[in-house]
Design brief:
312 residues; mainly alpha; minor pseudopilin epsh fold; 46% helix; 8% strand; disordered N terminus; disordered C terminus; Mn/Fe_SOD_N_sf
């Protein structure tokens, strides 16, 4: 048997057009292309522990890898493909989602950016040693003033998520009052909001809030829902439109809605650990591992004052 040994040719035997630089150029180009990709999986505060052991009492190591490492990586990789070389390739995921929410030709761009943002929001309020709500008395009292009790808030969020026929998110949001503040204090209210698929909780997104489950709507009810949403015309979003005037009343950088907590109801998050009939158990376990310290940091300042009880 003849054994052939591959020998790297020296530069003396290479064609004149070949140089050492040309040999390593493809590698450098690959590195440059990798560096150009700006969107990465955002770090979680307890990322290392989650990767080794999962989220204690909630998601296993394998479940965490599917729901966060693999899925978030898929969203980020696709987002990099869609934004490469574009002026917005360095923009935040939330900003990209809002920028293209009303563009029907950019549905894929919106979906991947919004889903990446939503999924990160969900995992960012989990920790290895979650702060109980009792340790955040101001936030706790504010929630009680709106919902009557923490048990009511818990039951409502879990029941709402359980009843969702399709995948999505259930959010606890602070909805700012767009009316002029009395005495310089802007008011608002806590609300529970449902979004389906990659729908976003931010009202600036218009149609792509996806606040209803299209699986259980008929043509008439769905058309009524669409008619109640903003339309993509110049007059609807100009500085003198109703929307523009309402936005002008907000403080600089303010938004109508501030999400502080969400639960992910996509099947790939809970199916691995809880099984086909385990959705409600997954939701119940989620409530017990919420880091209310992280939620409190996301809550706007005005939400921690005196909030009157409101019915919706």
């Amino acid at each position: 048997m003849i054994t052939r040994r591959l020998v790297r040719p020296s530069s003396a035997f290479l064609p004149s057009t070949w140089t050492r630089a040309s040999l390593i150029a493809p590698k450098r180009r690959q590195q440059q292309e990798q560096r150009r990709y700006e969107h990465r999986i955002p770090p979680l505060e307890f990322d290392t522990t989650f990767a080794k052991s999962g989220v204690p009492g909630f998601i296993s190591q394998h479940g965490f890898r599917i729901a966060w490492t693999d899925y978030q990586g898929l969203m980020v990789d696709k987002l990099n493909e869609l934004t490469a070389g574009e002026p917005y390739e360095h923009s935040l995921m939330k900003d990209i989602a809002l920028q293209f929410a009303r563009d029907p030709m950019s549905a894929s761009l919106f979906n991947h950016a919004s889903m990446a943002h939503n999924n990160h929001h969900f995992f960012s309020t989990l920790s290895t040693y979650p702060t109980p709500l009792d340790k955040e008395p101001t936030l706790r009292q504010s929630l009680i003033n709106t919902f009557g009790s923490i048990e009511t808030l818990q039951t409502t969020m879990i029941d709402t998520a359980t009843a969702m026929f399709g995948p999505g998110f259930v959010w606890l949001i602070w909805a700012r009052d767009l009316d002029a503040p009395a005495g310089g204090i802007r008011r608002g209210a806590w609300r529970i909001l449902t979004t389906y698929l990659a729908g976003t909780p931010y009202v600036e997104a218009g149609y792509r809030q996806q606040g209803i489950d299209a699986n259980v709507q008929n043509a008439t009810s769905y058309q009524a829902y669409k008619d109640s949403q903003p339309v993509n015309t110049l007059g609807a979003f100009g500085s003198h439109s109703k929307w523009g005037r309402e936005q002008a009343k907000l403080p600089p950088g303010g938004t109508n809605v501030q999400p502080v907590l969400c639960v992910n109801t996509w099947e790939h998050v809970w199916l691995r650990d809880y099984g086909i009939n385990g959705k409600r158990k997954y939701l119940t376990e989620w409530w017990d591992v919420i880091d209310w310290g992280a939620v409190e940091q996301l809550a706007p300042k005005e939400s921690k004052g005196t909030v009157d009880f409101m019915r919706f």
